[in-house]
Amino acid sequence: MEFLYYPGCTLSTTAKILDKQARSIAAALDLSFTEIENWQCCGATFPLNADEIAPKLAAVRALIQARNQNKPLVTLCAACHHVMKQVNHQAKNDADFRTAITSYDADLFYAGEATVLHFMEVLRDYVGFDALRDLLEYPLKGRKIGAYYGCMLLRPSDVMGFDDAENPQIFEEYIRALGAVPVSYPMRNECCGGYRAPEDALGCANLVERIAKSAAGRGAETLITACPLCLYQMVEHSGGAVDVCYFTEILAEALGVDDDDDDSND
Amino acid sequence: MTTVMIERCMTCGRCSAACPVAFAMDVPPHFWAVRVRQGEGESLARAEAIWSCLACFCCAARCPRGVRPVELAEQARSVTLRKENHTATFADETVLQIISKKSGKAIPQQLIVAAMRKKRA
């Protein structure tokens, strides 16, 4: 199966490890990932003003490539996933938006035809968690792992279509497929506070600390996340209540494709 | 004018109950639609709360009436930024503050981009 891969700005810089693990996993699972040509940063936030068109054009250009090549567009970063799906949804459902993007650039005709997938959705819907279980070299027996969804993967759920925003199960099913024990805890879909981190690091510290303690209190040893910002917030501010890593790390380990040369994000 | 269905808000407070930072806001989310509906959008644009919003969408997810307070926060921020004619300098200063911190190198690019977007009119 062929996919068009959109790495985004963070996976090219501070979260290179996420990019590397995803590519190793894709290769091991016979998924063909082609990096999208000349991709531009998605903008990290989806503008909520109806009159903001230009900040969405980078996403539109990526989506057009996916449509033209007839391949699903795959993202890893929670922010890219959020922006791509929001823009795709708007292009499909908002005629004024379609007219506006063509007014900016006559080459941009787009009506939401592409499919946007998060890497986790590829694992669930194209590989299958049952099939994945059979491919493991080193199942993570007995490990207690909590899913930290955060906000951008899930909400708004009618647009993301990722999972039930209030009671998501996809990460838990994934953890179970890898042979580990999923630890459910109340704050797994709470926001890390990242959007406010520049102005108010202390207030945000409090948010992630509560989330980490909620997970540790239920017995989680490790948290997995798909979001570089959630990971950063957890590492910086959670007070070490629980280890945190990207969701790809545990799969790379279970498949035996973990390069093991460094755990840093450099 | 706003795209948010402000007339549907019944001030039930579920958004504020869901919001992880409502406790620290001067005007919590369940008053936002009412303010705009009563023609007091200006006072919302001046509230500190609209800058505290994390854009995590949980207010919208929990609303039983399909109102999206999260969008009102961003629209109110834009009203302020555009009225005060903030230029890119204001956004760039925020970014400079972030990356000049000690731990600046570890800061994910998505945060820098988001911080810039937040303060750009």
Explain this structure:
The complex is a heterodimer of chains A (266) and B (121). By secondary structure, chain A is α/β, with parallel strands linked by helices. Chain A has helices spanning 16-28, 57-69, 78-93, 95-104, 119-127, 129-135, 157-160, 170-177, 201-217, 228-237, 247-255, and strands at 2-6, 32-35, 73-75, 116-118, 144-147, 181-183, 222-225, 243-246. In chain A, the strands form 2 sheets. Chain A has a 4-stranded parallel β-sheet with strand order 2-1-3-4, with helices on both faces. Chain A has a 4-stranded parallel β-sheet with strand order 6-5-7-8, sandwiched between helices. In chain A, α1 links the parallel β1 and β2. The longest helix of chain A is centred in the C-terminal third of the chain and has 17 residues, at 201-217. Chain B has helices at residues 14-18, 32-37, 41-46, 49-52, 58-62, 69-83, 88-99, 109-118. Chain B has one domain (9-120). Chain B has 121 residues and is mainly α. Chain B contains 8 helices and no strands.
| Structural class determined from secondary elements of chain A | alpha/beta
Shape of chain A: globular
Helix content of chain A: 40-55%
Number of helices of chain A: 11
Describe the biggest sheet of chain B?
none
Q: What is the domain tally of chain A?
A: 2
CATH names the topology of the largest domain in chain A as: Rossmann fold
